[in-house]
Amino acid sequence: MQRPVVILLSTYEGAPFLREQLASLIAQTHTDWMLYWRDDGSRDGSAAIMAEFSRTAGAGRCRAVEGGRHLGITASFLTLLRAAPPGHVVAFADQDDVWLPDKLARGLAGLGAPASARPALYCARQVLTDGNLHSIGLSPAIRRLPSFPASLTQNLATGCTVLLNPAAAALVAGSRLPDNTLHDWWSYLLVGAADGALVVDPIAVVLYRQHHRNAVGAPHSTLRRGLMALRRGPDSFMRLFRQHVAALLAQPAPLSPQARADLAIIAAALDSDRLARLRALLRLHALARRTWPETMLFRLWFLIG
Predict the structure, then answer these.
(1) Is residue 39 located within the same domain as residue 127?
(2) Nearest CA to 178 among 82, 250, 77?
(3) What DSSP designation does 58 have?
(4) 243-278, pLDDT tens digit by residue?
(5) Whole-angstrom Cα distance, residue 215 to residue 96?
(6) Helix, coil or strand: residue 137
(7) Which residues pair with 6 in a beta bridge?
(8) How far apart are CA 291 and CA 7, in angstroms?
(9) Residues 70 and 181 grouped into a single domain
(10) CB atoms within 10 A of CB 228
(11) Domain limits at 166?
(12) Pick from 64-68, 113-117, 120-124: least confident
């Protein structure tokens, strides 16, 4: 049975890659989709490429959402999400990737029952490629997507693979995001904190380009991720960590009682001394990253940051 999906695509200076991504949408085995797109102030012809695609993709298939003003990636995607019609599954799409043909079909299967009132987020593995789509490896395998509060420590839901069921889409669209977060990490955080379902697909569904213009990118080894984290240092990470905690505490209604309790412990520890933070870490064993070296680094930063 076909289920309508709203694909959300924010473009910014993406002309070199857009046509390949748009062609991969047309090639989806699941054909019941609409594209909501917004250009975030490009000057390279991205908006013209999108307008051309809208004319050729079929009547009513594409909708342009107010654009032109540069909002940044998170605000642009949130604008698209809030414009999407309620009651639909939504899928985030990056301008420079290529979707494999069964991406939407696998995502819908992973989300399960269409009418579920429980928020659900699906994400998947990616084939990492260079700028010319030559494979350079797979993203790390994740057997299970850690829920809250582990999701405070790192984002494992790569946005270009994410689908949200209608309940999750409404939850994220109605929330207030903190400064400097990303739409995919916030979605992962909020759905998990609301006791939603978190589904990870072990099969890669996207060719994920790694190039110098990536907004985020995906280092494909633990060592490289660790070195990048060490170079960045604790300040920017702990600043965002605090913002995530504060933003969730400021809108507690959809959160589970356990998430509220965990947030209270974390917030109290952050406002206290290192001994209190150590006690919080000993109490919240789930406040950990994917591998033990990454967890040790996070715990160090939590103690000193």
Answers:
(1) yes
(2) 250
(3) -
(4) 999 999 999 999 999 999 999 999 999 999 999 999
(5) 10
(6) strand
(7) 34, 90
(8) 32
(9) yes
(10) 11
(11) 5-209
(12) 113-117
